[in-house]
Design a protein that fits this description.
The structure is a homotetramer.
Chain A (H helix, E strand, L loop, with lengths): L12 E6 L4 H11 L7 E7 L4 E7 L2 H4 L12 E7 L14 E5 L2 E11 L2 H10 L9 H11 L6 H9 L3 E9 L2 E6 L8 E5 L2 E5 L3 H6 L2 E5 L4 E6 L2 E6 L7 E3 H7 L5 E2 L2 E2 H15 L6 E4 L5 H11 L7 E3 L12 H5 L6 E3 L1 H4 L3 E6 L6 H12 L4 E6 L21 H4 L2 H8 L3 E4 L2 H8 L8 E3 L1 H4 L9 H8 L1
Parallel strand pairs in A: 14-23, 17-20, 20-21, 21-22
Antiparallel strand pairs in A: 1-4, 1-10, 2-3, 2-4, 5-6, 6-7, 7-8, 8-12, 9-10, 9-11, 12-13, 15-16, 18-19
Helix pairs in contact in A: 3-4, 4-5, 8-9, 8-15
Chain lengths: 469, 469, 469, 469
């Protein structure tokens, strides 16, 4: 399953609110709804119109804001961030929002995404005498804005954004305004809502539901929105293009209760399971899913097939970061870590095991083995997305092709390697059908990691960047 | 849902192992699988044949054993406990196992259940000059054993057990033996397994699966098992009676992957949902369950009815004990705590909402309101157990009848109070059918809190005790 | 210096107050003034007339009561304890006060001292069916009291005290009274004071000064004082005998600002230094003391001799319990731990180095070496107490004679072993002169560890106990 | 005493080492010896020749490096810092060393002192497009260096230093070198030593003693030293001038065992006491000092006068940062905080109370009152430094003249305000005599806060800066 690559990817969550006197608390609750997008650090910056205040720390939102007194932050505007660490160092410095103060004003940034030309931009800035404090992409944008003149210039901000290549969703808070920006292809999710008169913005709509806000619309590809006390302005820093929202957001990253580009994630996953049955039916006794992200697809497969859905695998909820890993010796004796099979459900049964994806294949192999050890007669693996054969340059770094099992072995070889009785992937057209509903027909998705068709960015520069990485 | 009464009940988890050189670690993993049974404290006592060693603390298993070095415990035998605090004080003293040392030997006790005559027994012991250190029922048994002579006398232990009235599952560890005892009606779950040559015992079989152990059999009502290095002895301290295992263990307490008295909990819950559809069908668009304990029943209802199962409600996983509760003002503005509705799923739909039980009705009312606010056209509440109309004297203290909504209002009144379009409970015969499978036909369950028929204990003493409480 | 044996001894501090509405806070401040007597644990029990409340923990007073809300304790009476761990286990269970509850009332105990026949008494209690929870001597007294009948009987309490052999100062708090008891020889310090109308009692008078209380009198040997809301009662549980207050309290244990049996500790130490000069003068350039306990004696030596007192050794104040000890390699390269020499003071000088005592000689040797490495031309060691040649059975366990350097080597041998140019001890008559002032001429001190003359207790039983230990 | 103004001042400690494989550990021990110079934060940066590694945190050295694994830092060179917070925010960002990375190399800075033109320099840098991350003066130097070209240019570094006005001692660590710089007047202490072949540098020589290093020489005013693997280079960035080392370092800041500019601090303080007696003798029974910084002067006064030195005031050692402050009500009832009087020493006596300095007078008044309440017949206050009448612009910000009692009241008025029987200050010539020993006759001290004579810096710019502040 895709959780295998979580260590390699940059997938964060952002939340912002403007015009509510409980801005900091609401951001705290919003970040809870985005907690699955990053568990290494969290932070909130508020503005009271005069100055920005910051509280951030490493760990879960609850850890960082343990017994926190929100009156210390105050303010009627806030942005927040949950961080998933990647190749950047896992230090407090890199936890966002980043806050930059100067004698003429302050600026805080929260960012979800990956700037592909960050290294080059950083080199240019340092050459010109700048000192960058973090190893985060996000700081690069701050310096580009500062170089372009005063922090409060919208045209300077647009010039800075135009220098970035990549997938990104930015929230920028200043004393008297909040900026919202989405990359020209709209690769990252970013939605706008209202809570009474206040504006809210979040990576996923689940953050609106938790605070009782209403969804308004998507931030558009290449759009820069600025919210002031007396309203909001919108402008474009890139020409209008077809959106290419990352398909993996539907398959794995997002919460099932979120709507991405107006499509509900659980519903799309259930349709993936249904499409998967249409494409790869099998005679079996029970359907089971790998918790949590594959449950919806498994239920879809069960509903379409008429084979009963059962809980054949269970996740141990209380295994947190302080969990003491079993030694190799105990693992060999059968001690489980995160997942356990349910013997009475699978014993003597032909099992359809639905998972969201296969990356290296090691986890899948372990689960098939676990089910067989618990007595499953047959295990038929059904993957609710196409085989991942290409690296992603927009944020999910699957390193090199060498690690991707599907890029190196045939279906038959993989089936044997993981010890399954059969194996099938959902086709890319099946995935597209499952995701794209009526509401969003004109809007596209990015399936580059499966199909190899990358969305072209800015005068072909993207291909060059690809070759270099 | 029953979670409403969690604050009032004494429902813990016990785990023991004899004859494995990694006894302490395996107990740690076993306690993880029982973590849902008690999150206020955890502890492990080991024996290395010469002496007992203890580590315990307040909080989750992971908190208590954070970076713990198990070589400090050592030993080839261990018992462990996870605790849910009740009327007893929430102090470290009351966290189990309790360990008692003397110049002639030591004794550790771990206990799941409720001793109804604990107060009387405690008074008698103090009158005779004993000092009791904790406010826990468990210590009473230790003093009774000590009074009956040397700690290593099995007949003395049986005499002590015969003085107890109530529902209990005891593990007692001494330097050279482990005792296992279940109350005469078998109200609490307790199973025995094997891991290679080692014996294991646990409140739920999920603790066997996590360490790769195999289920052997149930501990019988009124049975006292003693395990030595050279084998195990079994004896009875009460005459053989029909078992009366608490039905609520199936409905709510236990993990879906556990088997209780050989019946799988998830499967029984799914059958509850199916029976519920047979008894109370309704025309609707989607079936949804209140996470986590009602999901299986909702899937059963969906499977039986043909109405699609959807995720209409979602639980926020990361809301732990350090979560800052929203103020009344924010709650009124719509900030959610543990559960959020999924607007795109329920909007404009007729929703069947399956829950496991109703106690006071306040949670159910809140969820119905939440679904309607998210746009549900109709909400039909289906409860996968009969109405709770009587207090339980065996451990789940529902205080007085006054708090039980079903004991005070008619079905119509409750329907109106919770704001539902319709409401139906599963019948007690339906619940019995769902739980009791072929394997366990002779074995009974206790549904006293629903039916008012209490299992009679020991010369009618139970009724007297009831009257007093 | 005596700090060498700190690990082996049982030397705690007790504080009590009756009749002040800030009883818990005042006890907290009082315990700060006694912190040097025990740093492993601290606790306070209060009574509000109805019930006792306890807060205790491991570590310093500041650690245990970090951000503590004293309104949780409340009450107008309190007893407190700081603990120095000895052979008993270092667990929270052994931290005092110990609190025992029963259905007829509660009792809390705080104790400084050592019960020599604790093992025998514990065996008798267990034989009779009691379960003891801690490995502390203190619990034995609680069980003896309980055995003798109701907790509120003063004659029962006296009978219980008569069964104890040893050195002890007890505070016992019940809902409606506080008991104060000192052993028949008065080996431990215990003073009574007044703060307005409230009674206070403490191991040292420094605890009175910190809260602004006034000294009233000593608790007498064999005296049992009981304080009620309407006054205090005094009675004796042992016949009147000459006091034998531990001389080491003056030499090392107590704070310089405390008065013990009306004699100021700093003043007595200064007199020790003066006597020491009279007995063992030497031609030298500077006098220096080993901080902290030997500074007063060094100043006395300097004052009597006319040789200037200088700071030739300095203690690193900030080296607490989390200090990372230097490796053997770094120590050999010269990295210091607690003490550093001051090169510019001692270089080329003949140094008189005053210390309070020598136990094993290893610390003394290290300091002499340190001074010589820093350039001292000569180092003359002057010890402000007689050579320790015998074990103490009353609390300071110097284990066996084997460890006591003075019991095994001649003065010349020790001088050579520690590398000093000369070495002299204060005589026992010198020590007696230094301690015993006019006010307390009739009162004796115990110098058994130096002279071998043990105070006789209770029908010669003490000698028997000595032989056994 | 001067501790009164500790909250207002910027007085930190720095330590560096080059060429020792245990560089990080030795820095840890060195920082312990400097802990009194700053307790709000601590940090260490190491270089292994390839890259710099940082560990820092808020609190004491022991807190920050609790159970720290020094192999995580590694390296053969290190700089460390202990910080005392001032007007700058007390956040982790401001804790030093500050570490700046770039694609061409890294640079860490540790700084003790105060840059008077920091605000102006910061404004210029921001105007030119720089983003500064901290509110610390230290970061300004980093940006000035970066602006002047590559980080590894010594002439660029000198240009940057020349832009600073103020009192400063800088350590700068790069992958392959360490820079040491002292301000042109040498206002701050900074010494160089050797430990085997390794170079060490520290604010005070006590840091050499703790690790067994030998003192070599002072860093000279206006000197820039650069240490490489193959030796050290020295150069000047300002013309040679007479040194003006802060006299307050002797009076209050430094440890008694340190030598500053080759003069031992304890010895100089003792001489201050002796000079003070010569200037202001008084008929009395005891001399006592306010612990800790005034003890040496009190001993000097006693030695010169023949009046015995006694411990009339005692400091409570265990009152740390988690100490719960007594309420106003309890303080009024006599609960002490840091200092207690020793009644048996002062009762009925004429007391000479020696203190190091008076700033606002409130602390002095409190101590006089404390001694009188404990029964002192007379209290004669003797201050071991001249009256502080002027603000300091080099680091010790005594805010405005308004707070300085000596700037606003006559000696008689102050005597009455503090309730003393007499009051005398040491004269500035007395102080100079006490500090300046034979070894350092040519070297001067700065007594501007007492005399108003400020050392002139850089073309008269200093006076301008003064006027502005």
């Amino acid at each position: 399953m895709l959780a295998e690559v979580r260590g390699l990817q940059e997938e964060c969550g952002v939340f912002g609110i403007w015009g509510h006197e409980k801005a900091a608390e609401l951001t705290y609750y919003g970040l809870h709804a985005l907690q699955h997008r990053g568990q290494e650090g969290a932070g909130i910056v508020t503005s009271n119109g005069q100055e920005l205040k910051l509280h951030k720390g490493q760990g879960l939102v609850n850890d960082v804001f343990k017994r926190f007194d929100f009156s210390k932050l105050g303010g009627c505007a806030a942005i927040g961030h949950v961080r998933y660490a990647t190749q950047g160092e896992s230090t407090i410095d890199n936890v966002q929002p980043l806050l930059f103060r100067s004698q003429t004003g302050s600026m805080a940034l929260a960012h979800n995404g990956n700037i592909m030309n960050a290294y080059e931009l950083r080199g240019e800035l340092e050459e010109a005498g700048s000192i960058l404090q973090t190893s985060s992409d996000t700081e690069v944008l701050a310096h580009l804005i500062k170089r372009n003149g005063r922090m409060d210039s919208i045209s300077g901000l647009k010039d800075a954004l135009r220098q970035l290549i990549g997938a990104y969703a930015f929230l920028i808070l200043q004393e008297d305004r909040m900026h919202i920006a989405l990359d020209p292809k709209g690769l990252r999710p970013l939605s706008i809502g209202k809570l009474g008169d206040a504006y809210v913005v979040a990576s996923e709509t689940s953050a609106f539901d938790i605070i009782g806000a209403h969804y308004e619309r998507e931030v558009l590809p290449g759009e820069l929105i600025t919210i002031f006390n007396d309203g909001m302005e919108t402008t474009r820093f890139a020409s209008e293009e077809k959106r290419a929202l990352c398909a993996m957001e539907y398959v794995y990253f997002s919460r099932p209760d979120s709507d991405l580009n107006k499509v509900n994630v659980h519903a799309s996953r259930k349709r993936m399971g249904m499409e998967l049955f249409k494409e790869a039916s099998v005679d079996a006794d029970v359907v089971t899913g790998v918790p949590d992200s594959s449950i919806s697809a498994a239920i879809g497969y069960a509903e379409a097939s008429g084979i009963p859905y059962e809980i054949g695998l269970i996740k141990n909820r209380y295994i947190g970061r302080t969990f003491i890993q079993p030694s190799q010796e105990l693992r060999e004796q059968g001690v489980k870590m995160k997942l356990s099979p349910v013997r009475r459900i699978v014993e003597g049964k032909r099992v359809v095991m639905v998972d969201d994806s296969i990356v290296r294949g090691t986890t899948c192999k372990r689960i098939v083995h676990m089910l067989k050890s618990a007595g499953a007669k047959e295990v038929h693996v059904r993957i609710a997305s196409p085989a991942i054969m290409n690296p992603c340059y927009y944020g999910i770094d699957m390193s090199t092709k060498k690690e991707l099992i599907a890029a190196n072995y045939s279906l038959e070889e993989i089936t044997e390697m993981i010890g399954a009785d059969s194996l099938a992937y959902l086709s890319s057209t099946g995935l597209e059908r499952a995701i794209v509903s009526d509401d969003s027909l004109e809007q596209g998705i990015c399936m580059a990691c499966m199909t190899g068709k990358y969305p072209v960015l800015k005068n072909g520069q993207l291909e060059i960047a690809y070759t270099k990485c």
